[in-house]
Write a structure and sequence with these properties.
The protein contains eleven helices and 16 strands. Strand 15, helix 10 and strand 16 form a beta-alpha-beta unit.
Length: 288
């Protein structure tokens, strides 16, 4: 195991600080990074205050499409964080953007997802189809569905087996939780469907797809080396940063252990115990 005390980087310390000085925006994963379940980490509010003091913007990204933007904003507010719709980007929005660009004629969708997710698609002008072999959709969208019903899982498998466009919102196998259970996520549901149909999704959106960062870069007029993607997963958060040419920061406050981080290839640009350590390094980089 490599030496580790609060943080480590692939860069020498002075080069790390130079790279951190270029950061103008921080994209923050949510579960496992700023909170766990319904518990806000003690370092989250001081970290956000540090970013504001340094003039560094931030956005909240999540691979979890089970809630609407309004749901997430309410959750953040209940934890003491006030955010705007423009500061949120979920895989539901990424999927809507993808459908509009790549399947512009698709309006009727079989949606394997929560009512909150379905409502977000309806608000965007899509029509959810019924659980009926006579109500043929234009495409199938499979997501993290905490209301998963066996009949609807079987209907999704049927439409997938018929060759309809098949989109997965995110690759996550499980969703982080502070409860004593395992929350089976979209990647595991898709594995079940693959076993039943022999077919994988045509595309899996969400992290590590770099398009999750493209909107932020465009919105704020940033270059990839001016944004840091911070999260608790190597195969989504850190991999997306590498895919987008951004700085990838792994925090050990969620899913990934130090032992797993040691085996990562490529390595995170920075691995830290939690986002509070990143805040301290940013402050040092700016001579505060």
């Amino acid at each position: 195991m490599k030496e580790f005390h609060e943080y480590r980087s692939v860069y020498p310390h002075e080069e790390l600080l130079a790279r951190l000085r270029r950061i103008r925006h921080v994209a923050l994963d949510m579960d496992g990074t700023i909170y766990m379940g319904m518990s806000l980490f003690a370092w989250t509010q001081p970290f956000l205050a540090e970013l504001r003091e340094l003039g560094i913007g931030y956005s909240f990204l999540t691979n979890n499409p089970s809630k609407s933007i309004a749901d997430y904003l309410r959750k953040l507010e209940s934890l003491g964080i006030r955010a705007t719709r423009e500061e949120m980007y979920t895989t539901t929005l990424a999927t809507i953007d993808y459908l509009r660009e790549h399947h512009p004629s698709a309006r009727r969708l079989f949606l394997l997802g929560t009512p909150s997710m379905v409502a977000e698609f309806e608000a965007a002008g899509f029509v959810p189809t019924a659980d009926s072999p006579d109500d043929r959709p234009d495409a199938v969208v499979v997501a993290f569905d905490m209301t998963l019903c066996y009949d609807r899982l079987c209907r999704a498998a049927w439409w997938i087996s018929q060759g309809l466009p098949y989109i997965a919102t995110n690759p996550d196998r499980v969703c982080p939780t502070d409860q004593r259970t395992v929350l089976v996520d979209c990647g595991s549901i898709c594995a079940c469907l693959e076993h039943a149909t022999g077919r994988r999704p045509d595309i899996t959106l969400g992290k590590p797809d770099p398009n999750m960062l493209t909107g932020i870069l465009t919105r704020h007029g940033l270059q990839p080396d001016q944004i840091a993607m911070v999260g608790d997963r190597i195969y989504t958060d850190v991999q997306m940063a590498h895919n987008a040419g951004a700085m990838g920061v792994l925090v050990l406050s969620g899913e990934t252990t130090l032992e797993v981080a040691d085996q990562a290839d490529p390595q995170p640009h920075l691995t830290a115990d939690h986002i509070g350590i990143l805040g301290r390094l940013l402050r040092e980089a700016h001579g505060r």
